[in-house]
Amino acid sequence: MPRVPHVLLSILVLATVTLNSLDAKAARITVIDAATGQPLPDAVVEVDVADTPPADTASFEIFQRDAAFHPHVSAVPVGSRISFPNRDTTRHHVYSFSPTGVFDLNLYRQDTPPPVHFDRAGVAVLGCNIHDHMQAFIVVSDADYQAIADESGQVRLTDLPPGEHRLRVWHPRLDETHQQWWQAPTPITADDRRSVSLSLAVSPRPAPKHSSLQQRFNRALSQ
Length: 223
What we know:
Order of helices and strands: HEEEEEEEEEEEEEEEEEH
Helix content: 10-25%
Radius of gyration: 21 Å
Oligomer: single chain
Structural class: mainly beta
Largest sheet: 5 strands, mixed
């Protein structure tokens, strides 16, 4: 068995120590379903820090493909602008009646409408007037830190300042209105490790069933 050179071994040890050191400075939050113990991707985590300047606004994109919105959940700072390009072969009519952002993008396919400005904190629920099963969510946040849980239900916050900060979590299945948040009973710190169990009140939506023609078309596109 070949021996690892001392220099290479030292580099590997240093890299491991550095990664562990960086991880030690990160707050890690795991969001799970209280009923099943399964991880909850698409949970949005917000952390408020006192005396922190507002987050920078930016431009984002939520596109339509296979009669679905991508991504399903977005988290953006207040003041951001979002465009809604259509990458389907069919037309869509994207809208939201939520107070956070009321808008109506009439039937379109190739020409992307101008971006929508979201200047109010809250949750905007998206729909399509042509395809009733289509739904997505935009969490417009005035918090100092916001992040979306990955497939393992985890969020890492690597740059929280020292001190105790307010934590709250949102998920689209917390209630029927999609406006409810879970509030942490105790603050979070910069190196916290925490598991959050959410009691969900809304069942997941069934996946849409495509017609045989649409299925053949999708297979042709993937070849």
